[in-house]
Amino acid sequence: MAYDSIHDGSKYAEIIVIRHGETEWNVDGRLQGQLDVDLNETGRLQAFLVAERLSKEPKISAVYSSDLKRASYTAQLIAKKCGVHQVNKDPKLRERHVGVLQGVIARETAISHPEAHKAFVSIRRDQEIPGGGESLNQLYERSTSALQRIANKHQGERVVVVSHDVTIRALHRKVSPHGKPIGKVINTSLNVFLVSDKGEWIVKTWGDVNHLLNNTAEFILE
Asked: Is 200 labeled as catalytic in the residue annotation?
């Protein structure tokens, strides 16, 4: 379905941005960053449920994903259920790299890595994290450029992008650069952007997790 801009009549790509399913590190409060962590049983069920939901909605033209396993597994289930033959994996859709804090329990960072912790919680968007960690500005540039590139390729179409908590928050900043922080993005929540080839972004839906509520689906873990 094509969407018309309220401003200039441009057409949009409808991009359904989804956070991957839950991992044990999510449960533990451990910072994953770009380490490759598998989904846990709950996460695999969440991925199944969001895939089931999307399979009953209007046609999905393409599925894109971070190349990390927790995102790509979620994306592969969606693609299979929606009749999309392949998942396009893109490292630019990865989570923020948090340097030496990757693998560390968040509540312990101030004691175990005080300098990195200070950088991690800094309000400065140009603050990098020791150990190869990205600044928020670096994350913003790579993630928004990736989504715009996908939108340019799929004008008038409906596509899925599976990514990560902080990355999705960076995408929201594109729409609301001076807005309040949106907080944590729930696992397998649907966050729908309309993106024109002229660089205009609109949020259509945010934080939709209806597929996780009162479900009666039967799911057998492989």
From this structure: no
